[in-house]
Fold:
Amino acid sequence: MAARYIEIKNSIRDDILSNRYRVDEKIPSERELSQLYGVTRVTLQKSMHLLEQEGLIERIHGKGMFVTRPLANDLYELNNGTGDSVLGFSREFSQVKVSSRLIRHQLLLPGPAIARQLEMQAEREVHFIRRVRLIDNTPVLVEDSWINAAVVATIPDEVLNGGSLYEYIETCTGKKIKFYNSVIEGDLFSREMANLLDIAPGMPMLKVSGVTKLEDGTAFNYSIGYNRADKFKIKNSWVGK
Amino acid sequence: MAARYIEIKNSIRDDILSNRYRVDEKIPSERELSQLYGVTRVTLQKSMHLLEQEGLIERIHGKGMFVTRPLANDLYELNNGTGDSVLGFSREFSQVKVSSRLIRHQLLLPGPAIARQLEMQAEREVHFIRRVRLIDNTPVLVEDSWINAAVVATIPDEVLNGGSLYEYIETCTGKKIKFYNSVIEGDLFSREMANLLDIAPGMPMLKVSGVTKLEDGTAFNYSIGYNRADKFKIKNSWVGK
DNA sequence: TAGTGGTCTAGACCACCTG
DNA sequence: AGGTGGTCTAGACCACTAG
Structure:
C-alpha cells in the first residue's frame, strides 16, 4: 500500500503520458487537484514536486503548473533515479527486448575498496557477477556487481540471465531498495570490455558506479556499469533553489 | 531573505562540513532539531530531505539520521544540481584557481534546434559564446552557450573572462535561476575541440548539455559543455521510493 | 515500550502574476 | 483584485527499530 502522494503522483504522471494533459497545457491548480483527490494541499504538493523532479511538469510561481515537452529520444536513457524505486536494467527497458548474458558468477573475498563501499568486513564473501546486457540482441553494456553474501546467500542463475536482480533481492530480503549513490565517469573501452561487447577498443564509454542500499540502510550491492556511450545518455532533471 | 528550511539546511550542512557532527555519527532526532531551531517537524523535515538528497546524511526509518562518508575525491566533481542555485562553473570550483579564455562572442540567429530549446523565435538574436575553462591554468573543458538576447541584451567580456555569468544574469534580470534540465552523454574529442584544450583527439569526453531557466519559467540559456573525462566526474546522490 | 522517521490534516499568511 | 504556487504551524496517527 503506497503512500497517497505516490499514488497521486503516478495517477497524474499517467494522465500526462497518455496525453490527457497535453504538452505546454496548464494543468489544474493545486487547490483544484487537492479537492479532486481528496487530500490537503501539502500532500498534493509532495506529488507535484516529485513530478517536477521527474521533468514532467514545470511549476511557476503565480502562473501555474505546465506539462513540459519531452526530450527528443534517439538513444536509450539511463534513468537517474526519479522513478518509484531504484530501477534495475530489466525494469527500465521493459518496452524493448532486453536480455542478459552471464559471463561470471562466483563467491570471492572483496578487495578493501569494495568491502569499504559495502560497509562490510573484507573477510566475508561477496558474489561477483559479470553480465553483458543486450537490447534487441545487441550487446550494449557490461555490468560488474559485488553483492554481500550475508544479505543474499544464493542467487539463482535464472535471475541473472533473465529476471530482475533487484526484484529478487526485494523478495528474498522482504525489504525495499531505497538508496543509490552513483558516480558517472567517461572513459574509453579497453580491449577486454570491447571484446565482450563486440565493438572496437577505444570507443567512448559512460561508466556508472554506485552503491545500492535497502531501506534499513544496509549496503548490499556495489556495481560498475560500462555503457556504450553511442547507445546511452543520462537525463538529469532537477530544480535548484 | 531565504526560506527558513533553507537556512536550517545550510546551518546543519555547515555543522557537518566543519565536523561538529562527525561521520557515521547519529545526529539529533527531528523532534530535537525542530525544537532547537524553533520550527515544526514538517519544516525541519524539508531541510533534512534536502540534506539527504545532497548526500550528506542518511535517514533510516526507526533508527535516526546519520552523517554519510564523503566520496573519495581524486577528480573534479561536476555538481548535479543539489546546491542552493544552479552552479556556474566559477561558483563551483572556488577553492581552486579557475579562469576562462573567451574564444568567441557574437550575436547571431539561432538554428531551429537551439531556438526550440530556448522557446524563442528563430528570427531573434542570441549571444553565441565559446569559452575554454581552465583549472589551475590547465584547460579542462570547452563550453558553448547560446543566450537569448531578449533576456540579456549585453554581456561584458569581463564577465565572460573572469566573473560568473549566472551571477551577472541574476543581477541584471533581478530574477533567480531556477531550472536546469540536462543530458549527459559520452563521446570522444574531435580534432577541433582537442586543439582548444591542447590534448589529443580521441580522448574521452563527458558532454553535458541543457537549458537554464529563470524562476518565472523563461528559458535564457542553452549550453553544451565538453568536459575532459579524465578530469571530471559527476556525482549523483538521491533516494528512490 | 519508547523513540525514531513517514505520512497526513486543516488551516494560515506570503509572494508572484495577470487582468 | 483574484488566482497561483511557496512557506509554515500545531497537531495526529502510523510503521519501523531497538532494548
Summary: Residues 29-31, 41-42, 45, 48, 59-65, 215-216 of chain B lie near DNA strand C (CB under 10 Å from a C1'). The helical segments of chain B are 4-17, 30-37, 41-53, 89-92, 112-117, 157-161, 165-173, 191-197.
